[in-house]
Amino acid sequence: MNRSGRSKRTMSRLIKEERERLQQKLVNDEASDFSHFSENDIEIRERVRVVEEISQIKDNLEETGTKSLKDNLRSWYIKYSPSRQAFDELLKILRIEHLDVPKSTKTIIGNSTEIGVKDVPPGEYRHYGICQQLQKVKELLKDREKVVLDIGIDGLPLYKSSNKGVWPILGKVVNENAIKVFLIGTYLGPSKPNSLKHYLLDFVTEVNNLTQNGVEINGRTLRFEIRAFICDAPAEAFICGTVGHTALNGCIRCTQKGKSIEGVTTFQTEVGEIVTDNHFSERMFPEIHKKCFRNIKTPLEKIGVRMISQFPLDVMHLLDLGIIRKILTRLFENKTACKICKEKKKRYRITWSHCGPLF
User: 46-73: buried (b, 16+ CB within 10 Å) or exposed (e) per residue?
Assistant: First the structure.
């Protein structure tokens, strides 16, 4: 008989004997005066409750057929994402109750790549991890004393006919062209995450640990640092907890307030007072912050990220995809008189066809 079969029979026998013994003890006690109910009796009742719960676990296990206790525990771990310390304590309790389970969480969950999907309303999030991704390119980091990353966060739709979209967290090692952009975590859902805290929880926890303790590569501990966060305006507003870029206080770099002209938020050419990292941290200009973050720090602030200087203006979105694309679209597709003629369009297209890709 295999070990699994012996363990199930032993467990059944022990549970049956313990239940009968404790229930008989309770019958004898209940014949006596309840006013003298001792702490030992209370402990016995508690043990009966535990035994009954363990028995229920066993019954549920038998109903699952071929699915083992280890598989059930792994599924439970993936569903609820407890800390490893808490899960180790649970395994210890189950072993005390004579259940055949491993001693450590690592044995239960196996390869860490099998876990990590958790609910982040209204969608799901999976964290792949900075350390795990850096281990894949450790040979390219063997001569470094410090790992410096740029982080990119953005939201994009999956399909034109669906409202489902993803919000990936990407990493890029600074000054190392041989290392491509890698995925740190990704959120999938019908809209952006409801909670910034829940979305960034795993990322912030890992970054805080790496900043304080470093990252171990090739048997050496390298210092870790984030240089910048690269985001377009909507993503930056979400991550920084500020008002949207189309709001009248949408510029968080200065105190210039915009005006709405024919439905378009417009700013004057004069620059207002420059907003610094300290101004942001101290909430000196509360109107640029969302109401929910006017009295509390954002997740990135709590780990020391500088919310102005570490969020550079993105030239691609501001100029290339913003101003230049808008001008060209109006010149080529506008149905008013302010557009170029067909002959010039043809010449421009011939010229562009001879231009190679930027990268």
Answer: eebeebeebbebbeebeeeeeeebbeeb
